[in-house]
Write a structure and sequence with these properties.
By secondary structure, the chain is an alpha/beta fold. Helix content is 31%, strand content 15%. It is built from seven helices and ten strands. A six-stranded parallel β-sheet has the order 5-4-3-2-1-8, with helices on one face. A two-stranded parallel sheet has the order 6-7. α5 links the parallel β6 and β7. α2 runs parallel beside α3. The two termini are 19 Å apart.
């Protein structure tokens, strides 16, 4: 076993960079590769191979907006459920349709295919371009089918900072509390992509938070697979993921 991955316990799939929002805080910027999305069959093969050798405790699908490709999300979580991975997490902005019946059917599919931890990205930034009512419809549908759901806000500067964005985020979270949906801790916005472009006045001196997305390259606990199949310097569409992992070495 590669010693740099001996503590691996999580797999993440970036389903697509395509998104139904254009958030000014987004670390991915303008979503230049928005037409690409993960190959669900290849993702399942990767899960099967990794789980045959490692004890995986958590799997996550995110984006962009992952529910633009519901079939792929369901394939991944169904495989995770088959391997009895305890935490099967989906991060979504909840806006993929305005049709209530489509929304309810999607929530039911997610439940049947094993999603058991849903983080809903709602805050001042998402709601600049995403209507709240379809998101509330999805949240209620997910709650009704028994998926554990929390809101996942993005905080500017810090959770405690009293800037206008955070005040608006607090008001939005209160609407979901009234539905019985509590917030997670969320995350503090990191200055990259659109955040650096549109919110630069908030990232001066001590206001710059640590980057929460950086793995220790000598102790990889989580691998993240991109829509084009890239991971750890290899590609799951071309190579066996266990071979990629065995070849991995910190740069």
């Amino acid at each position: 076993m590669n010693p740099y991955l001996k503590n691996l316990n999580r797999i993440e799939f970036l389903i697509t960079l395509a998104c139904t929002s254009r958030c000014k805080h987004c670390s991915e910027g303008e979503h230049a590769s928005s037409g690409e999305y993960i190959d669900g069959s290849a993702a399942v093969r990767a899960i099967d191979r990794v789980c045959s050798e490692f004890q995986i405790d958590s799997i996550m699908t995110f984006g962009g907006e992952p529910l633009l490709h519901l079939d792929e999300v369901c394939l991944i979580h169904s495989a995770a459920q088959r391997w009895r991975i305890p935490k099967r997490q989906l991060i979504t902005n909840g806006f993929f349709s305005k049709n209530p019946e489509t929304i309810r059917k999607a929530a039911a599919r997610l439940m049947r295919n094993g999603v058991n931890d849903l983080l809903l990205s709602v805050d001042a930034f998402h709601q600049e371009t995403i209507p709240l009512e379809p998101v509330k419809c999805f949240a209620e549908a997910a709650k009704n089918v028994g998926i554990s759901i929390r809101t996942q806000p993005a905080w500017l500067v810090s959770r405690e900072d009293a800037n206008p964005y955070n005040r608006k985020t607090g008001a939005i979270l209160e609407e979901f509390r009234e539905m019985g949906i509590e917030p997670s801790e969320g995350n503090v916005i990191f200055p990259s992509g659109n955040a650096l472009k549109f919110l630069s006045e908030y990232f001066e001196g001590d206001a710059v938070p640590p980057n929460p997305y950086v793995e220790n390259p000598e102790d990889i606990r989580s691998i993240s697979i991109s829509p084009n199949g890239d991971v750890l310097g290899g590609n799951i569409y071309r190579d066996d993921i266990l071979e990629i992992m065995e070849r991995y070495a910190p740069v």
